[in-house]
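Quick question, first post here. What does this chain look like in 3D?
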Amino acid sequence: MKSVELYTDGACSGNPGPGGWAFILRCPTTGKELERADGLGETTNNQMELIAVIRGLEALKEPCKVTLYSDSTYVGQGLTSWMAGWKSRGWQRKDGSKLVPIKNQELWKQLDLLMQKHELVFKHVKGHAGHVENERCDELAVAASQAFRQQ
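> Answer (accepted):
Ran it through. Tokens below.
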């Protein structure tokens, strides 16, 4: 199974508001790299963070070992801590003594399906701290967000 690195970021101008997402997908063995970005006119930062990961995984043409680098605590916690419980409760979370649907359920379900094809390891990177790929993804996501702001 091929190993790849996936760097992602999302941005939103207002929350909700116009948003952008971006990813860099890199194969360290071959040196090949793919960079993509886009956005939506009315979205949230968390949605953009999730869509960046989804679009990056969708770009893979075969099952891979993926090391995901993201500055999103929401994505990281969802993947490593929360998702198993959400699934076991029918994509619901505890809110006091009752269960309520999780936010961004459709995006989490898409991500769950993609994760079944790949072996994924999450690595948190600190945002706006000079991490080259994270800074590049941020630049692309903000530019995509701005393009939707001007529409």
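The longest strand covers residues 2-12.
The beta strands are 2-12, 17-26, 33-43, 64-70, 92-95, 98-101, 119-124.
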